[in-house]
Amino acid sequence: MEAVRITLPDGKTVEVQRGLKIQDVASSLGVNSDVVAAKVDGVPVDLDRVLSRDCALDWIPLDSPDGVEILRHSTAHLMAQAVQSLFPGTQVTIGPTIEHGFYYDFKRDQPFTSEDLERIEAKMRELAAENLKVTREEWSREAAQAMFRLMGEEYKVEILREIPEETVSLYRQGDWIDLCRGPHVPSTGIIRAFKLTSVAGAYWRGDEKNEMLQRIYGTSFPTEEALREYLKLLEEAKNRDHRRLGRELDLFSFHPIAPASPFFHPKGALVYNELISYMRRLYLRYGYQEVITPQIFDVELWHRSGHYDHFRDNMYFTRIDEREFGVKPMNCPGHTFIYASKKRSYRDLPLRYADFGRLHRYEKSGVTAGLTRVRSFSQDDAHIFCAPEQIETEMTNLLKMLREVYRTFQFTEMQVKLSTRPEHYMGSVEAWAHAEASLAESLKREGVDYQVNPGDGAFYGPKIDFVILDALRRGWQLATIQLDFSMPERFDLTYVGPDGTEKRPVMIHRAILGSIERFLGILIEHCGGAFPLWLAPVQIRILTVTDQQKDYAQGVFRELTAMGWRAELDDRNEKLGYKIREVQLEKVPYAAVIGDREVRDSTIAPRRRGGENLKPASVKDFMEMLKTEAAPEAGNDRAAQS
RNA sequence: GCCACCCUAGCUCAGUCGGUAGAGCAACUGAUUCGUAAUCAGUAGGUCGCCGGUUCGAAUCCGGCGGGUGGCUCCA
Predict the structure, then answer these.
(1) Quick check: is A379 catalytic?
(2) Omega of the bond prior to A462 within 30 degrees of 0, cis?
(3) Residue A19: CA atoms inside 13 Å, Cβ hemisphere, count?
(4) Architecture category of domain A3-61 in CATH
(5) Is pLDDT at A182 greater than 90 in this prediction?
(6) Percent composition of chain A: helix, strand, coil (DSSP 3-state, to 5)
(7) pLDDT score for A636
(8) Closest protein residue to B3 (Cα–C1')
(9) Which residue is nearest to nucleotide B37 (CA to C1')?
């Protein structure tokens, strides 16, 4: 019998009989039993794959990233098997793995209830206990199609119709079979630590026009401990949920009277405005000028800007004096009027107009969520009007500014996406190509890694979106930079060039925080409600031990507020422990305890959020010490970790 | 917008078979004057999201509407 040469992970080579299965090689080599699959020349395959040629072999242990992926995919199959055995007539569609688990979409008229989920989970445990062998079979596409048609699996038939290969792989476990590329774990007994988490509707192939399927989400881990840890993380995420913290910290609320439109309470408004002040200080350094523009414009403007054609479904309209008006969903068209209010020279450019104006966008009822997706919001919005040859410098400065801002908020991880021409667009294809190339060029020059997001641009131009990862590693789109050649055209904006002829400026739409609402929501979750000193709505609270210190404490309070600190005085007749508990739960960065000792020595006894007691000091000395920490550039204070 | 689920005091949640509403915390009053995460006692607080239906009787069953949550589609 012929032999094939196998290169092992350690670089050694062995010769084995052609036709041997990978698992035979594994057991003869005494490879660890937690190997669930292998890679042949880098391609993941099942352990029962036959070795037919020389190749490099690598093992995939269960607890490796590839192993977990395979485990989850196999768990999805196990779930589908359980579902079809419990609910005959249910059709399977697709069941991929996702970041923290998997899902499988089913076609069934009856909705799955939470009791059904429990039954499915129980059935899965049963099937796992049977330790069914999972085997791969190769079928001709036609035969597979015929079989699935016979089984009434219309979706599988449709999927098969679009597979170009003549041969497809099916996986069988017990009496259950599914079309799948694989690989899978060798037997169902390996699947142990799993949990079905939720049911949801999902359109077939993700298209709104298609019928709705039922998606069951679940997750699976190599060990019970890992699963428990994950569930604990979910629990922790719940505690950080900005909607919950917003209520607990009295930052904002919502009311059905204005759906998806936040009411910012005094403390929330303070943080909100502090974010804006921070941006305003940056604007001074980066050469921006703030403007204020109308809220409501005659629809004529929206026709001209293209919003009426491309954004109407997201806009609010109102009729008055026989005129139709639209509430602004964006600031850009308004800014063109300031630009056009007088004749512009190349010497005026670039003009950078910043606007914190309130925007209203109608969002479909099902998509709104807390502060992260609202109908009424404002952005740290700005429009840069510049000459085409200035785009490069502007982009460089924008990226610099963006990095500075994200460093301040300790958003260290960021993904960059270049979104290109969408289906509904304005302007010429050439202008789009030019704009897309400019953006790509800028990113390359700045050494920024990015992915292309085809068809995801704004209707007036391509954009670079910045997705930051929060403390729980969830991605959020905040910043956006959009290059626009068509709005200047539509509003006939010009400037006089050095040669005396009229030229067309370029508009760069950009936001760094994005919507202040969303940014605040993300920030709350990122820091768990423990704002850095410069953002904390209350920076320090004075706590008296008994009523004896009331007068002195009031003096300290007056002193602090006179110095510009956001201070509160808790001189209630309560025990110190009670006041400490409250100040801690409210995540106030500092407490200043005042008892008889402090009155006697004219000091305060500071306590940091988290419990660290600091040396008593005079008000003046202590606050002097906090000054550096109170600067945004100091980033999160140390106590924010608590 | 679509699918599923949820809505009881300010908050978190009980409320059995359809028989007319309950706890803890918070609030308020009083006592207590206390040194780093909860002092004690008392008082008050409800159109059970809203509208309709079934029923002798609805927080409970049914329908509609509103709001929210998890997804899908869309998106700052």
Answers:
(1) yes
(2) no
(3) 3
(4) Roll (3.10)
(5) no
(6) 40, 30, 35
(7) 44
(8) A201
(9) A581
pLDDT band at A634 (very low <50, low <70, confident <90, very high): low
Report which DSSP code applies to A113: P
Contact A372, A521 (CB under 8 A): yes
Question: Could you tell me the distance in Å between the CA of residue A214 and the C1' of nucleotide B72?
Answer: 10
Decide which of 3.40.50.800, 3.30.980.10, 2.30.30.240, 1.10.3720.10 is the CATH code for A66-235.
3.30.980.10
CB burial of A261-297 (b: ≥16 within 10 Å; e: otherwise) equals ebebbebbebbbebbbebbeebbeebebeebebeeeb
Is residue A581 among the annotated active site residues? no
Q: Which is the catalytic residue, given A145, A214, A379, A549? A: A379
**d(Cα A102, Cα A95) in Å, to the nearest integer?**
7
Neighbours of A12 (CB within 10 A): 9
The dotted CATH code for A252-526 is: 3.30.930.10
Minimum-distance nucleotide, CA of A244 to C1': B11
- Which nucleotide lies closest to A591 by the C1' atom and the CA atom? B36
Nucleotide nearest to A261 (CA to C1'): B67
Is A438 in contact with A483 (CB distance < 8 Å)?
yes
Question: ∠ CA A617-A623-A629 to the nearest 5 degrees?
Answer: 125
Burial class (CB in 10 A: 0-12, 13-18, 19+), A334: buried
**Residue A253 CA distance to nucleotide B42 C1' (Å):** 32
Q: Strands A451-453, A414-419: parallel, antiparallel or unpaired by DSSP?
A: parallel
Per-residue model confidence as pLDDT tens digits over A107-145: 998 889 888 898 999 999 999 999 999 999 999 999 999
pLDDT-derived band at A146, boundaries 50, 70, 90: very high
Question: To which residue do tokens 């036709």 refer?
Answer: A19
Find and list the nucleotides of strand B having atoms within 7 Å of a protein beta carbon. Answer: 1-5, 11, 31-39, 66-76
Distance, in Å, from the CA atom of A526 to the CA atom of A535, rounded to the nearest integer, reads 13
Name the closest nucleotide to A592, judged by C1' and CA. Answer: B36
Amino acid identity of residue A208, one-letter, is E
DSSP E strand boundaries for A485-589: 495-496, 502-503, 506-515, 540-544, 567-570
**More confidently predicted of A555 and A631:** A555
pLDDT, tens digit (0-9, with 9 covering 90-100), for A337-374: 999 999 999 999 999 999 999 999 999 999 999 999 99
Interatomic distance A399 CA / B70 C1' (Å): 36
Distance in angstroms, CA of A510 to C1' of B9?
47
Q: Can you tell me the distance from the alpha carbon of A485 to that of A464, in angstroms, rounded to the nearest whole number?
A: 15
Domain ranges across chain A: 3-61, 66-235, 252-526, 540-641
Q: Decide if A77 is catalytic.
A: no
* Residues A459 and A306 sit within 8 Å (Cβ to Cβ): yes
CATH for A540-641 is 3.40.50.800
